[in-house]
Amino acid sequence: MRVVSALGLACGLAFALPAQAQDVVAIGEVHDNPRHHAYQAETMATLHPAAIVFEMLTPDQAARITPALRSDSSALAAALDWEESGWPDFAYYYPIIAAAPKARIYGAGVARDAARAAMVEGVADTFGPDATRFGLTEPLPEAQQKARMVLQAEAHCNALPPEQLPAMIDIQRLRDAVMAQTTLAALQDTGGPVAVIAGNGHLRRDWGMPALLAIAAPDVTLHVTGQTEDGAPFDPGLYDNVQDAPAVNRPDPCDAFR
């Protein structure tokens, strides 16, 4: 198995392979940055993964992908109902799929009804019988809970009532656990290597998918690349390496809350 370690994007896309192979290669993103997706696609072409796990696809959507559809971007987007998904343009993501034509595609997205259920029933009951295996039956450490409350508040422009924030954290834990569970299923099905495409927040080594993967399957090896913009710093230890790209011009996301 081969894993890609990022070099700078300032002079174009470049790649190097670490000496030690990995079972799982996870690559983060800022969802609307096309350079981040270009890096992910180039990584797939170098890695030749046996499977790709997408945060952006539900299992139902992934099941709709046929060999014929994979050769037609427009037809595939239509089959996936991509325009209704809320994700950025499918043109960002299609090259990732096209770069690994033999890879099995897995969806790790959580359907809206499951996310709503987690807010009412709790993350462990919504996740199901494997909740203990992925650490969902244990409360978060107090310091982590507080830190995540702050991040959730900031992510929603401090517009949410404070009493809603714990439920938002539960949904995030559910998404991370489903991603870890799906990644392990893909690894078992294909033998790997497995690539994971997800937002940076889901791939934090301290409490995201990698942390839950380590709880459930500590022998699985993992390399995580985070992707930033304009040299914005990450906390040390969140990722194995960080890939930088120019920021895109985007409206203020908090306008929607005003």
Walk me through the structure.
The chain has 258 residues and is an alpha/beta fold. Helix content is 40%, strand content 13%. The chain has helices at residues 34-47, 59-63, 67-70, 73-79, 90-98, 112-121, 123-127, 142-155, 165-190, 209-216, and strands at 5-6, 15-16, 24-27, 51-54, 104-107, 194-197, 222-229, 241-245. The chain is globular and about 45 Å long.
In terms of topology, how is this protein built?
Blueprint lengths: L4 E2 L8 E2 L7 E4 L6 H14 L3 E4 L4 H5 L3 H4 L2 H7 L10 H9 L5 E4 L4 H10 L1 H5 L14 H14 L9 H26 L3 E4 L11 H8 L5 E8 L11 E5 L13
Parallel strand pairs: 3-6, 3-7, 4-5, 4-6, 7-8
Antiparallel strand pairs: 1-2
Helix pairs in contact: 1-5, 6-9, 8-9, 9-10
What string, H for helix and E for strand, traces the elements in order? EEEHEHHHHEHHHHEHEE
Per DSSP E runs of 2 or more residues, the count of β-strands stands at: 8
Regions with little confidence, pLDDT below 50 for 5+ residues:
1-19
The rough form would be described as: globular
The number of helices is 10
Binned strand content: 5-15%
Sequence of strands across the biggest β-sheet: 5-4-6-3-7-8
Q: How many angstroms separate the termini?
A: 48 Å
Structural class: alpha/beta
- What share of residues is helical? 25-40%
Task: Please tell me how large the radius of gyration is.
Answer: 18 Å
User: What's the main sheet like?
Assistant: 6 strands, parallel
Mean pLDDT: 91
